[in-house]
Amino acid sequence: MVVLDLEFEKFLGQGAFGSVSLFKHERQRDGKILHAAVKTSADQHAKALCQEFQILSKFKGYSRIVQCYGNGVQAKVNHKEGYVEYKILMEYAAEGSLSTFMDRFEYGKLPEPMIREFTRMLLEGLATIHGHGYVHCDLKPENILVFPSRVYDYKKGAWRTSYELKISDFGLSKKEGDTKWWHPDQPFAGTPIYMSPESISHGEIGKGLDLWSLGCVVLEMYTGKRPWWHTNDYLEDLMNCYEPLFPSNLPCDAKHFLMTCFASEPDERKDALTLLSHSFVPRDVNPKLANLKTENPKDLSLGLEKIRQMLYEIKSMC
């Protein structure tokens, strides 16, 4: 499938490094109409687009990462504008981003069971990313795609509509521990309100950054509001290792999950595989994650014991 032969349908959105549009094409063997999301960047962002394609190529076959097509970035001269455009093809998310999906619900708040399921899916995606040595660096609802799905409800004996999440937009992603990118004019990698204290204060890039961002996304699914909606001084609060405000009426296990994501020390946030065993997260782990590394078993055992103790203390306050 060649991007130059695709037929344009509509514009989908604009990002920091380019635009995304919907294209369609006819499959040769059966004439079926297929769709693809095409990300287009100008010359000044070509390097970032190439990097994104290289990273996405490592995640082919992983269900929680948006899939890319083709063998590389394609270049085409835009004769109307007079410059070269660079394009990559990706699978199309018919339900849009998590941000637009949330707008369909009253006050932008998702139902409790859906939040838990979506959290599990995001943890699976982060476990894949971190297992390959990368940090996403810009996890937020706009960079999470929603795909329609159908699951069989055995209790009702019928199929029902469901949704699958996939993490997208790896333009800012970096290898864990990478410091070469840092510059005084750009001291942190991603979107400020979703960044962690250590990433804001001294540009630290580690898996703890993504887990803090995950906490912000979970909080947003509950409240329908951006993190730090209650203050304009969030950068100062982050420098002081404060966490965003979250409602006091959340379930106890949700509170504890958020407290873990918002721990001041990155190591105390655990890792995505460990958090998949948290009581807040439904038990339906992707079997492809089995080969990814997690913490030392002894450390994991001690950590889970500490979590149980903290959960007991939280329940006593509820």
UniProtKB/TrEMBL annotation:
Keyword Kinase: yes
InterPro entries noted in UniProt: Kinase-like_dom_sf, Plant_MAPKKK, Prot_kinase_dom, Protein_kinase_ATP_BS, Ser/Thr_kinase_AS
Pfam families in UniProt: Pkinase
Keywords from the named record: ATP-binding, Kinase, Nucleotide-binding, Serine/threonine-protein kinase, Transferase
Domain Protein kinase: 6-281
Binding, ATP: K39
Entries under Gene3D superfamilies matching the protein: Phosphorylase Kinase, domain 1 (3.30.200.20), Transferase(Phosphotransferase) domain 1 (1.10.510.10)
Keyword Chaperone assigned: no
Family that this chain belongs to: Belongs to the protein kinase superfamily.
Annotated protein name in UniProt: Mitogen-activated protein kinase kinase kinase NPK1-like
Lineage: Eukaryota, Viridiplantae, Streptophyta, Embryophyta, Tracheophyta
